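Researcher: Here's a chain I'd like modeled. Treat it as a single chain, no partners, no ligands.
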Amino acid sequence: MKRMIYLDHAATTAVRPEVLKAMIPYFGEKYGNPSSIYDFASISKTAIRSARSAVASLIGADERDIYFTGGGSEADNWAIKCAAEAYSHRGHHIITSKIEHHAVLHTCQYLERCGYSVTYLTPDESGIISPRALRTAIRPDTILVSIMTANNEIGTIEPIRELGQICRERGILFHTDAVQALGQIPMHAEKMNIDLLSASAHKLQGPKGVGCLYIRPGISIGPLIHGGGQERHRRAGTENVPGIVGFGKAAQLALAEMNTRAKKERELRDYLIRSVLSQIPYSRLNGSPSSRLPGNVNFSFQFVEGESLLIMLDMEGICASSGSACTSGSVDPSHVLLAIGLPEEIARGSIRFTIGEENTREEMDYVVQKLVSIVSRLREMSPAYEAFSSKRK
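Model: Modeled as a single isolated chain. Structure tokens:
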């Protein structure tokens, strides 16, 4: 089997052995439905409560304010659609940004078709959403603002506390998609002025198919999914007990190890950035150089197509991506890179590496070595690069 270096942790992560071990009993011997009233079912009910507490601790919240979902996209849809419906008597204006995940963007576009007005804020060249821009965009009929905590493609961490404070002062609901940030950076929902927060387990070495929505006390929104009375009548459907248990265990481990893991990932991230920028000409780092997730690196290579680069890296056993995993297969350049002002031809030559705790410096050296060679080969085949080189001569 060829060597594999996995550098796509923003797409998904491997379930940790400790997480899998915690989940396994709830597939078999502890299979009770937590909604039932007999003692056997209480085993599952207790496990869910424990997981709820662990996830709440990761964002400094009370366990009663955590509601489990089928993933981050469902949580985004629930927060935005149901908040818009619940507060429609106050207005029909929503504010978000141009660099949100499609779970937010497509939900906002759906609401536009339902008669709501949406303002899409433009970030600066680093991907930062300015608090000043938010203040300017707010209208008397603004009812909801949704800005992600950290961008999934370029890793930029947004000034959530300041943005949330503006909304709190104006009595506007503030939602943040924290799917990429949860477990990666310290978070505290109340101190960050967050009303609604979406997250997903599989980004922090938990299982796929389970996420959560934090709803601040006093925020009244209805269910997205109707049916039974699960999740205190706010999210119908029999609970995914093994998945929820896994989410709880992953959250517990993430909280305990966050500082150590982040330190290692930042060191590898910065080493990779220095190495690439110093060894490959006409390359650039996308996103904020300082306010970025510990393991995120996003490069653009001029005169290179990102898809060709990914294919050739895969042949060398290196797993990376050209943007969000949810847009895999798209021939269009990243909407995030276009929003921060990159020309289309440069945006097409972009690649994202996202580092995990198992990666090593030796792997970074291997990646840089292969990148130098592959970028050089692709440029040799590029008419645009040939024309550029001729002009320089």
